[in-house]
Write a structure and sequence with these properties.
The chain is an alpha/beta fold. It has four domains: 2-116, Response regulator (Rossmann fold, 3-Layer(aba) Sandwich); 134-312, P-loop containing nucleotide triphosphate hydrolases (Rossmann fold), CATH 3.40.50; 316-408, Helicase, Ruva Protein, domain 3 (Orthogonal Bundle), CATH 1.10.8; 418-463. It has 20 helices and 14 strands. It has a five-stranded parallel sheet, with helices on both faces. Strands 7-10-13-6-14 form a five-stranded parallel sheet. Strands 8-9 form a two-stranded antiparallel ribbon. The N and C termini lie far apart (82 Å). Mean pLDDT is 87; it is low at 396-408.
């Protein structure tokens, strides 16, 4: 809400805000109407003149702060004395701007107030979730199969930040479901526009710019007609930029401008356009590693990481495997027009003792392959065993995120066990994990079932 008794100033401030993309405004020239308008339609922010007839700005400031304490008030006045400024700040004004108003100063103050409101809402939402310990809109996460506690906490954070306009960075290994989380953010955001996704991996600067920002007629050879980019398609919605860790330096500069200024230039144009899409970015790289290598801009990293979400790999939420298995079996059977096969009880144990470098996507592909080979009766374990054996026998090269975040597979106290004792511990743990199934335990340990059986018999004789 913009309150001023001079029509020309109302128009000037409103025009300045509109040009900066802040177009959800209401103006009021009669200060007597302000409190009634607030009662009918609450506002997020008020720009208030001080020297007005009927009800002056000082009185209005006090009334607004008393009845609507959550509304930041930016005082915009011709009074330049320090005493007036101090009086307004003491009365609760968010900011004090002197006329004639500089456009940059006004936009900066308004954006600060909007960010303050969003941060306050986010904190309130986080506090509410911590007290409730559940989800307000679980249906938004219907496409993500999980019962893992880490994931539920992640969902609660997503609900808290989804309604803000600030960028969100989603990090996690390949196949963990980064786009599914991005879509959940969009569903919870309340934005009226669509969800538009683009994979930045492998795009050079020209292709990235054309894809994202579009071009004008004649921008390059063959550009016979103008074309809007994906940022235009996502107007009023969400633009999902996947694999932003692979952006070229030139593309990073353009993305930074988009985030900082909220504007972009189509290829071949020197006239900027306003961007009105919420940005959600994702990467399977550790940005800290890219920053240390000089492959990613620090200022862009700071802009992207207003809200950060890390999706844990499947190996850290193995309790999800039974539920995922049931879901993927039914889905594969439906797509292949087959009845859902029965599952051998050894399968859960086998799948729970594998690291899944490809995460949930790898498990889904593995189940689909097994069902496609299935003919009748109980689902065969052979497809799973062959895949796991092949993956475990081949040298595995950890990604930067895996190498940096992974815990050591075994930790020791100050006293190391003997080889014999360590072997016994490994065998006991493998048998525990597989529910006493010798075949599966032997597969985990990388020995034959006969060798494992022999060791178990020796252990029984000693005990």
């Amino acid at each position: 809400m913009i309150v001023d008794d001079e029509a020309s100033i109302l128009l000037a401030i409103d025009t300045t805000l509109q040009m900066a993309g802040l177009n959800n405004t209401v103006t009021c020239q009669d200060s007597r109407r302000v409190m009634g308008m607030l009662a009918e339609s609450p506002v997020e922010l008020m720009l208030l003149d001080l020297n007005m007839p009927n009800v002056d700005g000082h009185r209005l400031l006090g009334d607004v702060r008393l009845e609507y304490p959550d509304v930041p008030v930016i005082v915009v006045t011709g009074a330049v004395d320090v005493e007036t400024a101090v009086r307004c700040i003491k009365a609760g004004a968010f900011e004090y701007i002197v006329k004639p108003v500089e456009a940059d100063r006004l936009i900066t103050a308004v954006n600060r107030a909007v960010s303050y409101q969003e941060l306050k809402r986010e904190n309130q939402s986080l506090r509410r979730h911590m007290l409730r310990n559940d989800l307000e809109k679980p249906e938004a996460f219907g496409s993500i199969i999980t019962r893992n506690r880490k994931m539920i906490i992640l969902f609660q954070y997503v609900e808290s930040v989804a309604t803000t306009s600030q960028p969100v960075l989603v990090q996690g290994e390949t196949g963990v479901g980064k786009e599914l989380i991005a879509r959940a953010i969009h569903r919870l955001s309340g934005l009226k526009g669509g969800f538009v996704a683009v994979n930045a991996a492998g795009l050079d600067d020209t292709v990235f710019s054309d894809t994202l920002f579009g071009h004008v007629k004649g921008a390059y050879t063959g550009a016979d007609t103008p074309r809007g980019g994906l940022i235009e398609q996502a107007d009023g919605g969400t633009l999902f930029l996947d694999e932003i860790g692979d952006l070229t330096p030139a593309s990073q500069v353009k993305l930074l401008r988009l985030l900082q200024e909220g504007e972009y230039f189509p290829l071949g144009s020197d006239v900027s356009r306003s961007a009105k899409a919420r940005i959600v970015a994702a990467t399977n790289h550790r940005l800290s590693a890219l920053l240390s290598q000089g492959r990613f801009r620090k200022d862009l990293s700071y802009r992207l990481q207003t809200h950060r979400i890390y999706i844990p790999p499947l190996r850290e939420r193995l309790d999800d495997i039974p539920q995922l298995l049931v879901h993927f079996l039914a889905n594969a059977a439906s797509r292949l027009n087959k009845p859902t096969p029965s599952v051998p009880r050894e399968l859960d144990a086998l799948l729970s003792n594998y690291a899944y470098p490809g995460n949930v996507r790898e498990l889904e592909s593995l189940v689909f392959d097994a069902v496609s080979r299935h003919r009748s009766g109980v689902l065969s374990l052979e497809t799973f065993k062959l895949h796991i054996s092949r993956e475990q026998s081949s040298p595995v090269e950890l990604t930067a995120s895996q190498a940096g975040d992974a815990d050591p597979p075994i930790t020791f106290s100050h006293k190391l066990p003997t080889i014999k004792h360590a072997t016994r511990i490994l065998i006991e743990e493998a048998m525990r994990r597989t529910g006493g199934n010798q075949s599966s335990a032997a597969k985990i340990l990388g020995i034959s079932q006969q060798a494992l059986s022999k060791r178990l018999k020796k252990k029984q004789r000693r005990s």
